[in-house]
Amino acid sequence: MHVLITGGSRGIGAATARLCAARGWDVSVNYVANAEAAAAVVAEVEAAGARAVALQADMGEIDAAETLFDAAEAALGPVTGFVNNAGIVAKASMLADMEPARVKRMIDVNVTGAILALRAAARRMPTDRGGPGGAIVNISSAAARLGSPATYVDYAASKGAIDTLTLGMAQELAKGGVRVNCVRPGIVETDIHLDSHGFDRAAQAGPSLPMGRAGRANEIAEAIVWLLSDAASYTSGALLDVAGAR
Ligand code: NAP
After folding, report:
1. How many domains does the chain have?
2. Pfam families of this UniProt entry (predicted)?
3. DSSP character for 140?
């Protein structure tokens, strides 16, 4: 079992890498800039007795997905699990005040990057393309159904695209033995909020959330790893909210 996780160096991706290793998966850890964080995750996976490799790639670049999958397979063999997790936010703002370049980068990484990553998976994993079959988990957000007004509607729309992709790709790949599902986290304790709010939004929002706290990365990872596992063998095309009743 070999899982490739985009954005596996920090946050939800890193928690997923650690949990996958504990459940017997070898792990390819993609990152964009933080080589140190990626190396730390690789070390943790190896300490759990699994194999791991850190692979740099900017998923917002047009050729990144093909290069990444080739490198992952060269290092650890055929990919049987794919977590389409890399994603960015940007400074909280009204749409009217956003720079066009920021919106373009959001779509390049969160939508085009995710679609091309699914394309790379779809060219390799299905049994009717000579692959091993397996499971894919796309990472969307509760923002896809909330809209994120006055915060980042561009991000929310990018996650709506991930939901829709899940529905289509689950059907495209079903006969090839590949399940495709989606996890939609609520507000989770990771670094991502510093990029949008400049402060720890998860801690600040916590008391006002239904459970009185934000989610933890490992709580999202549990759902992702379940969807990757054979325990979810008849689950495909699902959009799973892990958002603490938000
Ligand atoms: P995070 O803590 O900011 O970590 C982001 C990860 O993605 C890092 O590993 C980062 O690599 C990588 N990354 C960023 N841009 C990339 C790019 N262009 N190419 C490749 N990798 C890239 O984020 P997170 O909170 O774990 O979020 C993970 C996913 O969950 C995202 O899709 C996000 O939208 C979604 N989500 C998060 C929350 C939340 O509250 N945290 C809620 C809903 C959905 P480096 O370490 O190299 O920078």
Report:
1. 1
2. adh_short_C2
3. -
Give 168 Cα–ligand 1 centroid separation in angstroms. Answer: 23
Average per-residue pLDDT for the chain: 98
pLDDT 10s digits, 11-44: 999 999 999 999 999 999 999 999 999 999 999 9
As a whole number, mean pLDDT of residues 129-158 equals: 98
CB of 150 closer than 8 Å to CB of 143: no
CB of 188 within 6 A of ligand 1: the answer is: yes
Query: What is the CB-side half-sphere exposure of residue 192 using CA atoms within 13 A?
Result: 25
Whether the model clears a pTM of 0.85, i.e. scores above it, the answer is yes
Give the residue numbers spanning the domain of 125.
2-242
Q: What is the residue with the minimal CA distance to atom 12 of ligand 1?
A: 7
85, 111, 118, best to mutate for ligand 1 pocket (most atoms within 8 Å of CB): 85
Atom 11, ligand 1: which residue's CA is nearest?
Answer: 31
